[in-house]
């Protein structure tokens, strides 16, 4: 069985490091860098507008997907969601995108490649994780709460299709006031994957 990180028994400590401007095709964001003390994992938050005014903030808590976010993979919907979230924040002129380094729902990139190989052989996304000895989802969102606290973000309107993720966020101490759907990027390569997420992981992917 895989070792879970961060350890659920130990509250993670996350240090704010520095902020800078980040111009993008969607608009100019401010990028805030954070570092987790134990794992030295580096996370960023992109913000736009005044997010510390106490009002709910449009937010995306995006888990790293190197293949979808940076390498144009059509196996999932991550890259499309990343773009749509940045676009939505820019259109509203205010919001936050937390880019969380928990690749492959927490199993890491190399294990995700192993999982994809099993999926190439017929397993679905959940079965593949289980065959490798991992739970379907190993993510831990307590790190995100620390980053929201550091930025004085009191409550969030979360862009997600995953109601279970909202529960996980609430259990991590994050004040979620609304779910904002983020349905983009369905294509022939991820059709089955998205159907599996809806059937087995509870995602609301049908309007
Ligand atoms: N283990 C595993 N991880 C995957 C797979 N496809 C995508 N991921 C990872 O899943 C994470 C994204 O989680 P999802 O379950 O797609 O979406 P979600 O964040 O729960 O829900 P949304 O907010 O609606 O996107 C990223 O870390 C991806 O790297 C897969 O087949 N296997
Ligand atoms: Zn992905």
Automatic annotation (TrEMBL):
Single GO MF annotation: GTP binding
Family note: Belongs to the GTP cyclohydrolase II family.
UniProt: Zn(2+) binding residues: 65, 76, 78
Active site: 137, 139
First-level EC class: hydrolase
Gene3D superfamilies associated with the record: GTP cyclohydrolase II
Keywords attached to this entry: GTP-binding, Hydrolase, Metal-binding, Nucleotide-binding, Riboflavin biosynthesis, Zinc
Cofactor binding, note field: Binds 1 zinc ion per subunit.
GO annotation (BP), single: riboflavin biosynthetic process
InterPro entries tied to this protein: GTP_cyclohydro_II, RibA, RibA-like_sf
Location of the GTP cyclohydrolase II domain: 18-181
Organism listed in the record: Aquitalea magnusonii
GO cellular component: cytosol
PANTHER family linked: 3,4-DIHYDROXY-2-BUTANONE 4-PHOSPHATE SYNTHASE (PTHR21327:SF18), GTP CYCLOHYDROLASE II-RELATED (PTHR21327)
Superkingdom per UniProt: Bacteria
Catalysed reactions listed for this entry: GTP + 4 H2O = 2,5-diamino-6-hydroxy-4-(5-phosphoribosylamino)-pyrimidine + formate + 2 phosphate + 3 H(+)
Protein's pathway: Cofactor biosynthesis; riboflavin biosynthesis; 5-amino-6-(D-ribitylamino)uracil from GTP: step 1/4
SUPFAM superfamilies associated with the record: RibA-like
NCBIfam families hit by this protein: PRK00393.1 (NF001591), ribA (TIGR00505)
Enzyme nomenclature, EC number: 3.5.4.25
Record: residues binding GTP: 60-64, 81, 103-105, 125, 160, 165
Obligatory cofactor(s): Zn(2+)
Record's protein name: GTP cyclohydrolase-2
Reported function: Catalyzes the conversion of GTP to 2,5-diamino-6-ribosylamino-4(3H)-pyrimidinone 5'-phosphate (DARP), formate and pyrophosphate.
């Amino acid at each position: 069985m895989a070792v879970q990180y961060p350890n659920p028994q130990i509250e993670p400590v996350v240090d704010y490091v520095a902020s800078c401007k980040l111009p993008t095709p969607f608009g100019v964001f401010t990028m805030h860098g954070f570092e987790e003390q134990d794992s030295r994992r580096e996370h960023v938050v992109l913000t736009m507008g005044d997010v510390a005014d106490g009002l709910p903030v449009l937010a995306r808590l995006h888990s790293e997907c190197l293949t979808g976010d940076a390498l144009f993979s059509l196996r999932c919907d991550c890259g499309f969601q990343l773009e749509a979230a940045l676009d939505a924040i820019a259109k509203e002129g205010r919001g936050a995108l937390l880019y969380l380094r928990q690749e492959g729902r927490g199993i890491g990139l190399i294990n995700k490649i192993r999982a994809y190989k099993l999926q190439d052989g017929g397993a679905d996304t959940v079965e593949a994780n289980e065959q490798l000895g991992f739970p379907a989802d190993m993510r831990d969102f307590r790190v995100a709460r620390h980053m929201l606290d550091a930025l004085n973000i009191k409550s969030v309107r979360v862009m997600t299709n995953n109601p279970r993720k909202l529960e996980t966020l609430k259990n991590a101490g994050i004040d979620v006031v609304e779910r904002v759907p983020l349905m983009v990027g369905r294509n022939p390569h991820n059709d089955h994957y998205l159907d599996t997420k809806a059937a087995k992981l509870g995602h609301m992917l049908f309007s």
